[in-house]
Every structure is written in C-alpha cells, then in structure tokens.
Design brief:
Elements lengths: L1 E3 L2 E3 L2 E7 L2 E7 L14 E5 L2 E8 L5 E9 L6
Antiparallel strand pairs: 1-2, 3-4, 5-6, 6-7
Amino acid sequence: MIFLDGTRMNEAFVCKRNNNNIEWRQIGKHTTPKPCPRASQSCVVYEGNAYIFGGQDDDNNKLFDLWKLNLSTETY
C-alpha cells in the first residue's frame, strides 16, 4: 500500500533485480475482495504469501484485520 500526493492508494507491488536495474510490477489488482487503502500496516512474507496486518484507514481509524496475498496466484 502506498501514498500518492498524500492519498492512500490500494496497490501492491513486487520488485525484481535485473542486473543493475530494479523492475517493479503491480500485483493483486484484479482480485476481490482486497484490503481497504491503509497506512502504517505491518507486512511479512512467509512461504510464498505476504501477510498484511492492521494499519490505519483514510479516517485514521486503527485496523485489526489480517490479509494474506498469495504471491504465486496474486490473489488475496
């Protein structure tokens, strides 16, 4: 999840190093449901899945949800 011009965006990206270049690719964009836009979340990658926990929504309410993004299928 990222900020763009001060607005929370609901996008996830992976990067891959190719020699001296880093290539970014958006993932999970065609899957539903997916987490709401958030900031200050925690994320860990384990056994091919990214686990996203908590954070704050657009109104700065604290979130206590847990999401799993499968990095192979790119689905939540």
